[in-house]
Design a protein that fits this description.
Layout (H helix, E strand, L loop, with lengths): L1 H30 L10 E9 L2 E2 L12 E3 L5 E4 L13 H8 L2 E2 L3 E3 L6 E2 L3 E2 L2 E10 L8 E2 L14 E8 L11 H41 L27 H13 L3
Parallel strand pairs: 1-11
Antiparallel strand pairs: 1-2, 1-4, 3-4, 5-6, 6-7, 8-9, 9-10, 9-11
Length: 261
């Protein structure tokens, strides 16, 4: 009896684990079905602002799930390779994990940098972790994100500042430095020009090639319109020679006129 109970508990536990895993996978796939989808490429500028100063941008080459950064350019490259990093799964937390940044509601530490924890002081004031997102280059106001920093959704063409500072200064958190705007514009323009040159070749050459190869020859049904030669029934209109019967009548009338005397 004892062993039967143990076996039942183990089986129920396994069933619960499998069910929970399947539910989690379903949630990931559902969240990953929205933009940015797998195969999409977005860019967002970022900067880390600690106690009133910007720190150098992170230099990182690894790309585990398609959300990372380049050569210290201050740009997050958002190009999901799996659904777990796509759509609503494309979060600041994914970026932080990819580049080795410690980031949550109570901690901030860039790779090789100082660890800041909630309550530590900046200029003698207790400070906290803040995320401020700016909708576009030139946006000076931005909006503080009232969620766990790891859950902040990444956005295309936007910018964000990851900050640690006192609450009294949270409204003054600035957007990323000018060089980030410059680099963001460059990578966005490069990606745009690439897509604009490759898309026509993939769409027009394939479809146009197939169209001309199949439909243009069939369009040469125009020769069948050369039924015009049947209109050469005009030669039958040469019945005009029958009108020459007029000539014989004139000489006969002249003969009758001379016999009168």
């Amino acid at each position: 009896m004892y062993y039967s109970v143990i076996a039942a508990v183990v089986i129920l536990g396994l069933i619960g684990t499998v069910t929970s895993r399947d539910r989690r996978l379903a949630q990931i796939n559902t969240a990953g079905g929205t933009a940015p989808t797998v195969g999409t490429t977005w860019f967002e500028g970022y900067a880390v602002y600690e106690c009133g100063k910007f720190v150098p941008a992170i230099n990182h080459a690894k790309d585990p799930q398609g959300i990372t950064t380049g050569a210290a350019d201050g740009v997050i490259h958002i190009a999901p390779t799996v659904k777990s990093s796509a759509g609503k799964n494309a979060t600041l937390g994914k970026f932080a994990s990819a580049v080795g940044m410690k980031l949550n509601a109570a901690e901030l530490q860039v790779p090789g940098g100082k660890l800041y924890q909630d309550g530590d002081t900046c200029q003698g004031k207790k400070s906290h972790v803040y995320i401020k997102q700016f909708g576009f280059a030139g946006d000076k106001t931005g909006a503080l994100q009232n969620v766990d920093p790891r859950d902040v959704l990444l956005q295309n063409g936007a910018l964000l500042t990851i900050a640690f500072g006192p609450a009294s200064d949270s409204s003054k958190i600035p957007p990323p430095p000018a060089y980030v705007n410059t680099n963001l514009a460059k990578v966005s323009a490069a990606a745009s020009s690439t897509s604009s040159t490759t898309v026509p070749s993939s769409s027009s050459t394939t479809t146009a090639g197939k169209t001309t190869a199949t439909t243009v020859p069939s369009a040469t049904t125009v020769p069948s319109a050369t039924t015009v030669p049947t209109a050469t029934t005009v030669p039958t209109a040469t019945t005009v020679p029958t009108a020459t019967t007029v000539r014989p009548t004139t000489p006969t009338t002249k003969t009758s006129a001379t016999s009168a005397p």
